[in-house]
Amino acid sequence: VSESALQLTHSALVSVLGREDCECLESVKLAIEYYNYWRPTKPKVILLAESHVSTPRELSCQGPVFKKCLVENNQYHGPVDFCALVYCLGYGENDALVSRETSNILKSLQKKDNPGTYQFWKLFSACISPPDQDPSSYGEDVKKSFSPSVGQRIQRKFEILKEMKERGIWLIDTSIIGWYIPQETNYYIAKTSKEVTKLSHQRPDPKLKGPCLRISWEGYVKNLVREATNDGELKLLIPIGKAVEKLLGKSRLVDAVTVEGKSRVKVIDAFYAPNARVKEGYSSTLVKIANLVRNATSCQPNSMA
After folding, report:
1. Backbone phi, then psi, for 107, in 5-degree steps?
2. Can you list the alpha helix ranges (DSSP code H) found in 89-208?
């Protein structure tokens, strides 16, 4: 997909959200670099998530960078600039970051400002797991409580992403911009019941999420899916997050994988996102996704790009 398409789509989003609430183009381009680096040569399964977290320009362009030396045998050749995206190995790992020579931003980057997204590592782990693996162990080996060594955690995360790429599993986001802007969390306490409710973040305006996801999809992301379809080996499109299907509509997803009136790609009904609050827990969902992915990839490695 052309860079001009990305720029036009970003401009359309700026016109809806305003520059203050729209992730800068530099950060968007960085996220695309990460998606492209971890794209399989011929994707077999696309996990279509909603969005990464908005990364301010001062972090993506002037902030800390990933220490590539943490990956054994100099195997990592992707982007190193910081992005609040699961594909960035420094996301959630302050000890894996180093300040640029011209910046001291790392010194002020607190752990609360770089929380990572452990729930997606559980999803990734499930996608490459053997059939008999205990679902409660998905992602355990990248937790700090399990692996205190930052080197061990980074190496394991790299191996998970590498295996996903080899098997043809590709995560992309519906939104080209980081929709979620880090901000203070507010709560409401009911006068009578004293029940505490977490209030929705007000930036960006939640009412604009649907229009923005559709702009991103139609202007750019749909074409990523169509390119993967044309590669000839895509079997599954799995929406990760109920909002993806609800706000886009399943017909848009089906249209993206339909070529000349035919589609060999199955569009699965959306699952809850890994970080959603699900009363019955998320383990059963992980098992369902793992089985779908395992059947579609047949555990046969795909060639690295």
Report:
1. -60, -25
2. 105-108, 118-127, 150-167
